[in-house]
Amino acid sequence: MNTYKINEIFETIQGEGQYTGTASIFVRLQGCPVGCSWCDTKQTWEQLESDKQSLSNIIIKTSDSPTWCDADETIIYNTFVEQGYRAKHVVITGGEPCMFDLNPLCNLLHSKGYTTQIETSGTFEIQAPDQTWVTVSPKINMKGGYPVLASCMLRANEIKHPIARQTHVEELEQLLIEAPVKQNTLIYLQPISQKTSATELAIETCKEKNWRLSVQVHKYIGIS
Ligand code: SF4
User: Fold this and answer.
1) Where are any strands of DSSP class E within 106-210?
2) Cα–Cα separations (whole angstroms), residue 121 to 32, 52, 133, 138, 191
């Protein structure tokens, strides 16, 4: 049994990476010290007691807020059932979900017939079963000062790297030299904020390196 700090739980379509288009339940965990300047979930950074609420309040949230609740894996699973979610893929995101031991949650979900996926910055040791699909979006030289861990890069099933400029591509190339991935790990470039220049750079680099493009489909079709 483990207790997780939950920022939100909702059902949607995964818009990024290998699972793009997959009906998914998102479990967003609270807390992240990594400090990316362009982070689009800054509401998850702090774990303030003053923002603690009941699970029922968290479930009905309709906009971004720093409110959170405690829930163990059984409560999380029961919530899926009570909410009538039909998706069988669960994306555990954040915040930085690897601040938590995700084994109890993923193991329970696997036993109930779900597949699981983690979206992590690669700056905390990954505590999750082998079956869990791990997406590492390596956050290199961010304000919080957390290095990307070689163990996370090696565990990754896919790397998803946000880029806007050539320097971001070079950062990833250097990281892959210092912290190699497995041979079958997929590498995605994801243009930051749907900017045209970033998208063009990502397309050209993917063609050159035989990498893949991830375009955050949910932002183009206007869903969460
Ligand atoms: S690691 Fe993720 S949640 Fe944390 S600051 Fe960076 S983008 Fe935001």
Assistant:
1) 115-120, 133-136, 158-163, 186-191
2) 10, 24, 14, 5, 16
- CA nearest ligand 1 atom 8, residue: 39
The tokens describing 180, both together, are: 């190699």
Query: What would the pLDDT profile of 12-45 be if each residue is shown by its tens digit?
Result: 999 999 999 999 999 999 999 999 988 989 999 9
Closest CA to 93 of 63, 117, 77: 117
Burial profile 12-39: b = 16 or more Cβ within 10 angstroms, e = fewer: ebbbbbbbbebebbbbbbbbbbbebeeb
Task: Indicate the pairing of strand 23-29 with strand 3-13.
Answer: antiparallel
Give the confidence band of 195 by pLDDT, cuts at 50, 70, 90. Answer: confident
Average pLDDT over residues 171-178: 97
Would the pTM of this model clear 0.90, i.e. be above it?
A: yes
Neighbours of 123 (CB within 10 A): 23
Q: Is the CB of 119 under 6 A from ligand 1?
A: no
**Annotated binding site for [4Fe-4S] cluster, which residues?**
32, 36, 39
Q: What is the pLDDT of residues 143-166, one digit of tens each?
A: 999 999 999 999 999 999 999 999
Condensed to tens digits (0 to 9), the pLDDT of residues 95-108 reads: 999 999 999 999 99
Amino acid at 107: N
Who contacts 91 (Cβ-Cβ below 8 Å, separation ≥6)? 14, 19, 24, 25, 26, 27, 116, 117, 118, 119
User: Which residue positions form the known binding site for substrate?
Assistant: 13-15, 28, 93
Query: What residue ranges define each of the domains in the chain, with the CATH number in brackets?
Result: 3-159 (3.20.20.70)
